[in-house]
Known about the structure:
With 64 residues, the chain is mainly alpha-helical. The protein is built from two helices and no strands.
Amino acid sequence: MASAIKNTTKFLKDVSTEMKRVSWPKRKELTRYTIVVVATVLFIAVFFAIVDSGISALIRGILN
Length: 64
């Protein structure tokens, strides 16, 4: 049990050390990345909506 506590404590100290080394993005970069992600998600959502409606129309045409 003491070994588990010691390992957990060491792990958390290592995490803290690594978090200090991280190069965090600046506000402008973060905003740009967020816009890119949102635009990509919207593009893919619209693309799949169009593909889905096309496949649905094709299947309806075949079944009718």
